[in-house]
């Protein structure tokens, strides 16, 4: 059976997003999600395609990797979880700079699923990197009221003021953020956003204080929060918890089985916020870093 790796193309991204969506399953690890691809789409479809690698066997997509700041973030089909031959091909491509996936002597792999690949990475000298904390909230029971006024922005929203607020909160929540209205519109026009929403939270004075984007992978599958932030001038008032609860409610309304997120374990305050909003911590995971 023929295993091959290809670069994505702008025209192939829709098929790739759907493949990654199907791989999401309740109780599974927080691996590459359609929302990760959707959030990266703010830079444009061509830029995203240049960052994405696809592995197929006999024409079927079985693994997708997105190169993101020196890390390739992997999504792997459940059907090849323990497939040693497929894992060996993945490792060969990840390890060979000539394949154009990771540069020589550097780089890391985010592989939270794929038992065969994870085992092979360990045995091949890749070492644990920065720890991350995945969190999940099941969406079986009704989600409580978040006690915050929230505006929801769909793909075709024409309320420029709300979009401006979404962008402003993002830029005020994350240092060095380069988010713009134009990038929001590029993201909102892309296929993954058909199953996504942006939420903006407002305080009692009508000031935008928090925002989040939520991404569905389809009915009965885990949804993703990516990203979530509170305006730097309005922290310490519980807005982080409130917008997280609102995000869970939005995903429940969209048919998601659970709401998931993954944050650096060093982000102690962020982890505490998610826990306070009803999310359960899953054991920490690490990327795999090449030592030479």
The whole-number mean of residue pLDDT values reads 96
Distance between the termini: 31 Å
Count the beta strands: 13
Shape: globular
Structural class designation: alpha+beta
Largest sheet: 13 strands, mixed
Percentage of residues assigned to helices: 25-40%
Q: So how many helices?
A: 9
The third-level CATH topology of the largest domain is Aminopeptidase
CATH architecture assignment name of the largest domain: 3-Layer(aba) Sandwich
- Rg over CA atoms, rounded to whole Å, is 19 Å
Element pattern in H and E: EHHHEEEHEHEEHHEEEHEHEE
Number of domains: 2
Spans where pLDDT lies below 50 across 5 or more residues: none
Strand fraction equals: 25-35%
Descriptive labels:
Acyl_CoA_acyltransferase, N-acetyltransferase domain-containing protein, 292 residues, globular, 13-stranded mixed β-sheet, Aminopeptidase, 9 helices
Describe this structure in words.
The radius of gyration is 19 Å and the shape is globular. Helix 4 packs across helix 5 (115-123). The protein is an alpha+beta fold and 292 residues long. 31% of the residues lie in helices and 29% in strands. The two termini are 31 Å apart. The chain has helices at residues 13-22, 34-40, 45-51, 84-95, 115-123, 160-173, 181-188, 239-253, 268-276; strands spanning 3-7, 52-57, 60-68, 71-76, 108-110, 127-138, 149-153, 196-202, 208-215, 222-230, 258-264, 280-281, 285-289. The mean pLDDT is 96. Strands 1, 2, 3, 4, 5, 6, 7, 8, 9, 10, 11, 12 and 13 form a 13-stranded mixed sheet that branches. The protein is built from nine helices and 13 strands. It has two domains: 3-131, Aminopeptidase (3-Layer(aba) Sandwich); 138-284, Gcn5-related N-acetyltransferase (GNAT) (Aminopeptidase, 3-Layer(aba) Sandwich).
């Amino acid at each position: 059976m023929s295993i091959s790796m290809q670069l994505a193309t702008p025209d192939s991204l829709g098929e790739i997003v759907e493949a990654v969506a199907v791989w999401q399953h309740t109780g599974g690890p927080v691996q590459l999600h359609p929302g990760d691809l959707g959030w990266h789409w703010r830079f444009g479809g061509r830029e995203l395609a240049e960052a994405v690698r696809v592995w197929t066997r006999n024409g079927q997509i079985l693994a997708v990797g997105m190169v993101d700041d020196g890390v390739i973030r992997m999504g792997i089909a459940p059907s090849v979880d323990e497939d040693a031959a497929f894992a060996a091909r993945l490792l060969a491509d990840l390890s060979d700079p000539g394949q154009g996936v990771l540069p020589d002597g550097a780089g890391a792999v985010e592989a939270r699923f794929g038992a065969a690949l994870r085992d092979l990475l360990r045995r091949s000298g890749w070492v644990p990197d920065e720890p991350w904390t995945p969190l999940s909230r099941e969406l079986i029971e009704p989600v409580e009221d978040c006690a915050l006024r929230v505006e929801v922005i769909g793909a075709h929203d024409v309320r420029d003021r709300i979009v401006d607020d979404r962008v402003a909160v993002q830029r005020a929540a994350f240092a060095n953020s380069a988010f713009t209205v134009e990038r929001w519109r590029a993201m909102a026009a892309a296929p993954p956003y058909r199953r996504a929403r942006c939420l903006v939270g407002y305080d009692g004075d009508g000031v935008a204080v928090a925002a989040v984007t939520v991404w569905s992978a389809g009915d009965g599958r885990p949804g993703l929060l990516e990203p979530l932030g509170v305006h730097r001038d309005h922290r310490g008032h519980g807005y982080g918890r409130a917008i997280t609860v609102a995000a869970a409610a939005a995903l429940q309304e969209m048919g998601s089985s659970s709401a998931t997120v993954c944050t650096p374990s060093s982000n102690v305050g962020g982890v505490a916020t998610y826990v306070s909003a009803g999310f359960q911590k899953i054991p920490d995971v690490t990327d795999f870093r090449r030592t030479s």
